[in-house]
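Chapter summary example: a protein plus NAP.
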Amino acid sequence: MSNLNGKVALVTGGTGGIGAAICMKLAESGAKVATNYRNKEKAEAWQAEAKSKGFDIVIYQVDVTDYDGCVAMMKQIEADLGPVDILVNNAGITKDTTLRKMTRDKWDAVMDINLNGMYNVTQPLIEGMTSRGWGRIINISSINGQKGQMGQTNYSATKAGMHGFTMSLAQEVARKGVTVNTVSPGYIATDMVMAVPEEIREKIIAQIPAGRLGTPEEIAELVNFLASDAAGFTTGANYAMNGGQHMQ
Ligand code: NAP
């Protein structure tokens, strides 16, 4: 188990399927964990449930598309827990349709959250991480950023873009003790995927050599490793975890 005692972690979109597992895993490893959300009712219920399992996660109502809100959140986290050492850019959405039918709204919404949101959260933190000489940034991309997917030109563009950001930022901060990596999950058994009709889900599973969906906990294990001191020599990398569905 990684030792993250004393570290402060921010996981964006932690109240969702994968984010929740990451929050719990980092907390289990000793980190003080914060997350942000849009939906207050859902987040408060989620926080109470986490508390009942012994996890004290601090929550902030901040939309990742709001740069000033993100800057204010970083100041508040610093006051409440200390400066952020570990950032997991996990908040993300899909708005799928073929490009022929894709309205500008659907394109912009996905760009704003998945890509601009990553900038809004990361940029205010980078100065502090480099000046303290230690930091971990983990960007949650997707298999569909690597292989493309019909109906996801917007989503795939953002997820491929995330790894471009990872590789560039990794070069900027490598000598300052800060690593930047991408995790690209395949199909994971979250509410989003479980809501897909069973018949279609079975077709997806048939394309996965491992013969099953991944679990949020498996993604969290990888993130937990990348957040640790032991992962100090890996940076700018893209870690695929997809049951063999896409191999590079
Ligand atoms: P999810 O359950 O839908 O969770 C998404 C989270 O992001 C929610 O907590 C949501 O909070 C938050 N969020 C969305 N827009 C936000 C915004 N503008 N500001 C702040 N928070 C926002 O999704 P998931 O399946 O756990 O996916 C997590 C990440 O993994 C995403 O980036 C997704 O693209 C990626 N991924 C998922 C899979 C999969 O199979 N599930 C596969 C590959 C990659 P609110 O509800 O409060 O808005």
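Key point: Residues 8-236 form a domain with the Rossmann fold fold (CATH 3.40.50.720).
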